[in-house]
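Lab meeting, action items carried over

1. Structure of the two-component assembly. Owner: GW. Status: complete.
Input record:
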Amino acid sequence: MNSIILLSALGLGNLFLGFRRSNRLLLPVMMLILGLVLTVNFLDWNQGPQSFFSGMLIIDNFSVAFTGIVLLTALVLVPFSQKYVLDEEANLAEYYSLLLFSLVGAIMLASYNHLLMLFLGIEILSVAMYVLAGSDKRNMRSNEAALKYFLMGAFFTGILLFGMALVYGATGTLELSSISFSVQNPVNASLRPMLYIGMLLMLLGIGFKVGAAPFHFWTPDVYEGTPTFFTAFMSTVVKTAGFAAFLKLLVQVFPAATAQGVWLPTLTAMCVLTLLVGNVGAVAQTSVKRMLAYSSISHAGYLFIALVAFNGALEGASANGIMFYSLAYSVATVSAFGVLKLVADARHREDYAGFQGLAKTNPLLAFCLTVSMLSLAGIPLTGGFFGKFFVFMAAVENGYIGLVIFAVVMSMVSIYYYLRPIIAMYMRDADDATTEAVPVPVTTFQSGALLVLALLTVLLGVLPGLLAGVL
Amino acid sequence: MLTVLLLLWPVTAALLLHFFKGKSARVAALGAALLEFALALYAAGFSGANLALGGDIGPKFEFNYSWIPTAGISFHVGMDGLSLLLVLLTTLLVPIILLSAFRRNFENESVFYALVLFMQTGLIGVFTAQDAFLFYFMWEVALIPIYFLAGVWGGVDRARVTFKFFLYTIIGSLFMLAGFVYLYFQTGPTVDGLSAHNASLSAFYNLNLPAETQLWVFWLIFAAFAVKMPIFPFHTWQPDTYTESPAPASMLLAGIMLKMGIYGCMRWLLPVVPLGVDYWQNLILILAVIGIIYGAIIAIRQQDVKRLIAYSSLSHVGLMIAGVFSLTQLGMQGASIQMLAHGINVVGLFFIADAIERRTGTRNIADLGGLTRKAPALTVCFLVLLLGTVALPLTNGFVGEFLLLAGVYQHNAWLGAVAGITIILSAVYLLRMFQRVMLGPDSAHSATFTDLTGGEIAVLVPLIVLVFWIGIFPNFFLSLSEGSVLGILGQVVKR
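Predicted assembly:
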């Protein structure tokens, strides 16, 4: 709870800092805020469930863990916005404040205990993202991305709200445990279809936010058009928070066997489709940014496996799997987008060929991108491997062997496209001499952030025992 | 604890190597590798004394740390005789491989040497792991550095070739991981009761799976080993990768990495799914024998020295696989000692191929000839290593191949007879190469060719000493692995 208050208050304060027109101050302040909130957040660890606003929000270990992941992601992401500072970007304070506000939404998604809070969280998160998607105002692609994201997002928010309304109609409450109770002990059996339709509509609504197929069509275009810094935020924070919300919804609201019969096939189908679309789509891309967009779809698919295999509690193999996976994925993705942003800013291109010769000009960037690609591909020694490992183990334990085999085949496919940037960086020379000669400019601050990310990825990959099973 | 030291030292050294620039990096790397070798020798001396006293055959120098407590996965390493044999091979070859790299000036030297040392950790991890998931983990740790070694410093076609190699091996090992996950869920809880299952080697040995399950689990696990060794028809990545890699990487691949597959079969396949092995034994033997003949025949037609060695390696590894799958003590012991012998010989041959290429700029047999007049030392070294590979009596190859063939013959006389052709065929292609490269009519290079330098001789002398040592007094090496081999066979026959 403290983190929500702090983030909101400091976000507002940050806006006032914008009046001073001093961008140089903004970046350290931003880091300081995020670091402070991150520390405060972990004070709630193992304090037992604390409920706020008449039980509408509950802070427990689950929400602290996911809050920690989104805050950490934001913290390590911020250094890559340094170019805005150097370029004297006019509205930087507003952007940063919007980021902080959207984090508030993300935290609410990890700690809601009432469907209204879920809705509020999603809206706070999304509205900020709609604006940030269009923040590159002079770029048509960015405008297009914002419009697309907003129209589709508004539409699916409607669907989500409609679903909630139907669930409310069928159960007479929006409080999670009460809904769960009336799902198991229905007062009026004829209302069941209404409940199930409401439940499915809610799944679609959140499925859209995490970019699950078949509601993924917006993802590649929006990701490509949005400025890379915010794309990174979208594909990590939004996704992590979305899955935390998903897991909470399934575990706390619809665990009853009868309800499971309705959402489990839907979720399984979405999972298979998402894995297929994400991985096969990524193979065909020529732009690294679009590849990363499809890759983020595919990772939603792996996370769905853990949802399908959940065991009815916010702890245990499945919840831990999602937590570990989100962290490993976020760390690797931030690093990938970070390098992409630096390279794209310097070389003005986002295709694979733009990365050629990077190992010679910027060994550090090449190394960090390699670690992140290997992690996303799930190769041992990186956090991504244990993320997949835990998720797959949870699924096998619950008997979803076919699904895991399919996912493993898909991750074999993914090795193809994750190796392409590595091959371009290390095994091919730049296609013209001028790029070869000029290193991509990187500040110490950014190198530090990249190194931290790479070390974190390797640490997660070597000592997974530190985090596995904490929930 | 010594095993952990053996594991951690190379990777630590690799990290420290970043503080060395240019030529000092190679010296530091060599020093680190020699220290590692000294550690391994100490372990061998300790174990040798233990064996002489008739001590037990279980793993020594054990270290067990609960890696992922909630999943029952532990960082459990230890060395028995067989592991020790391969650790010795690895730690012996790595300094030699590093020395061989001294002749060339690689870009970013410190990174190159760091990757070799990093790979050493992975290799030793594979040979000492006592936990299935740790084994898989180390298996991939060994892959990543060699991919970059071959991909960054390799030949013109390196990107395509190494990509194929990476995909092949990683897909194979994913099957193995799937097999391990399946077996893991069949095991009982850990001692501390934190986890419902555990992945330790002993737990896998104590599984009593029904025969029909073992039939398919066998293939899941074998897929990884089949690609790595490689066995016909999973070998298509091998000749290209060996040829395109820089010489040190080829040595790592053929000298050590190939043994990961054979070791894996002995430790993680035969005793774990004995009924599956029993069922597929003849199929694997036939594939292995096809590989022996196929590799040898293709080697005869090769024009590129490195490619010829690659195919010869395919042929020789076929015989080792056949020996292992004969499930006889002779065959398994033969495979153990032949792993050592083949590692020494193939590294020596690659070293000589590289020496010739550096001097003449070509590996093409047709362009070479008459080199011997100017290079007597090279000729002698080349011939000794070549005869070791051909398996002439008194050389290391003879001990290994004799035992292997005897083992295969014990299992099936016909297969043994066909596999025996390998000795004739390998004499054909290797002596043909020797004759055309070293003897034969003078070529454009024979006048300007220079003999081995002192440094190069220093690399080759230990190898040649070993060729004869293992060939004449193989008993120390055989006794090292004997206990383990008997233990594995006992495990296989038990059911």
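2. GW to write a short summary for the group page. Key points so far: The interface with chain A takes residues 66-71, 108, 111, 136-137, 140-141, 144, 148, 151-152, 158-159, 162-163, 166-167, 170-171, 174, 178, 181-182, 185 of chain B (CB under 8 Å). The two ends of chain B are 34 Å apart (CA to CA).
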